[in-house]
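User: Sequence for THUMP domain-containing protein below. Tokens please.
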Amino acid sequence: MNLILITTKINSENELINEVLSFFILKNVKFEERKVVYGGVVLFFTDSPYFAYNLLISSVLSYPMKIYPLLSSDELLKVLKKSEISVKYVNCEIRGVKKDLCKELEEKIKKEIKFDRKSDIVLHIQGIKDYYGYSVLKRNCENYSKLLENEELRKSCFSFMREKILKI
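Assistant: Structure tokens for THUMP domain-containing protein:
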């Protein structure tokens, strides 16, 4: 069973869960009923995380969320090594572990991808303990309120996310 990690505003997890599960049922995405909720983060267990990810970013759900397919740290490094992305920086937040883990992961990532100050791409790493999610976003695509207010920006960001999804 694979996972998708979705972040939202803290104390909004139940609304997000209801909307995403309704969407999964509507789109015939196989998922397990169990979920993990941890301070603004929800883990969904599914057999097809990339399919679910693509459906979610292609739809216009009303609830603000960021979506991350999940990988182990070794899988993540393997994916990044194969990708030919150049990023401005890495933004990392892993809940439930010591803060040094993000620094360790960022150091490993720096060996696998190119960094360019002129790039408008940011690699976001989110996680809970041993589950790591990633997302490659253009700058301004990580801002919930901007995405909800600006339809052109939302279309541009989602198109970019579909194009740049990192696959194993």
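The first helix runs from residue 13 to 26.
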